Structures are given as C-alpha cells and as structure tokens.
Amino acid sequence: MSFSFTVKHEDELFEITNKLAPTLKNQNIIFIEGGVGAGKTTFIRYLLETLAKSNQSKFIFQGSPTYQRENQYYFNQLNCVHFDFYQVEDSPGIDLEDYIIDHCLFIEWPLNSLKKRYQQEALFIKVKTENNYRTIEMHSENLQWLHQIQ
C-alpha cells in the first residue's frame, strides 16, 4: 500500500509531518530516498521540528550527518537517530540492532542490505523533484504504518 503528497511550498511539509510524527515510536525505521538536493534532509528537519513541538522539547537541528554518519535527538518520549549513508559502501555486516532497540531511525541513502533486511517493518519515503514542486511518496509492507498516517 502506498500514497503520495504533492508539496509546492516547503511549509506544506508540516501537513505531512503532522500526520506522521504522532505515529512514531522507538524501534521504527524510516528509509528516505531521493536524488541529491531532492529534499530528504529538509523533510527530516520538518519531522524532527514536529516531534519537538509535540513533545514540548527544545530542538536544534544538527544538519545533514553526511560526514559524521549520524545525529542523535532526544525528546521526552522518543529518541531519534538520523543516519546518512551517502558515502558508505554497502555491506551485509552493517547492523542497526544497537540503535533500533531504543530509537526511531531516519535513514537517508539507505543501503540495499538494510532495505532488504528491514523491508517488512520499515516505512519507505521517496522524495522526487518535479518542475516547481516535490512529490513525497510513502509505502510500506507493514500496513499499520499507512493506516496510522492516513
């Protein structure tokens, strides 16, 4: 099951993140794909801002973790890790088990081995740039994700 949103202005991302944020909990995995400059990091920033607001938490976005690989964020009820695997070579040895137990994971440039391993649980988000707007597509084999977001 899948659905998509059209975003003409960046602020419209809050409409999507306001639906997604309340469904998030530790042990969730969200894979975010799209070309360079498509808006993956911006989407995550809006999602984290929404989480901070709903948890009445202070929040400072640390930017894209392209070089340090991960940024961690702690809210009252939820711990999040933002990964960026843009420059990481795929390997079946890469494991998320130490993180997933007590974190919600946002993964930009997900590795094929991770997508395959977690495809039953994960929410997949694809950000596409088209003319003057973006399309945010979401799909998951776990129907619970999509029923909660709708």
Q: Which percent range fits the helix content?
A: 25-40%
The overall pLDDT average reads: 88
Computed structural class: alpha/beta
The number of distinct structural domains comes to: 1
User: Strand order, biggest sheet?
Assistant: 1-7-6-2-5-4-3
Distance between the termini: 11 Å
- Quick one: how many beta strands? 7
Given the C-alpha coordinates, what overall shape results?
globular
In N-to-C order, the SSE pattern is EHEHEEHEHEEH
Describe this structure as you would to a colleague:
By secondary structure, this protein is an alpha/beta fold. It has one domain. It is 27% helix and 28% strand. It contains five helices and seven strands. The chain has helices spanning 13-20, 40-54, 97-100, 112-117, 143-149; strands at residues 2-7, 29-33, 70-74, 79-84, 104-108, 123-130, 133-139. The chain has a seven-stranded mixed sheet with strand order 1-7-6-2-5-4-3, with helices on one face. α1 (13-20) crosses α2. The model has no long low-confidence stretch (mean pLDDT 88).
Any descriptors?
about 150 residues; alpha/beta; 7 strands; globular
Please write out the topology:
Layout: E1 2-7, H1 13-20, E2 29-33, H2 40-54, E3 70-74, E4 79-84, H3 97-100, E5 104-108, H4 112-117, E6 123-130, E7 133-139, H5 143-149
Parallel strand pairs: 2-5, 2-6, 4-5
Antiparallel strand pairs: 1-7, 3-4, 6-7
Helix pairs in contact: 1-2
Could you write a compact summary of the structure shown?
This protein is an alpha/beta fold and 150 residues long.
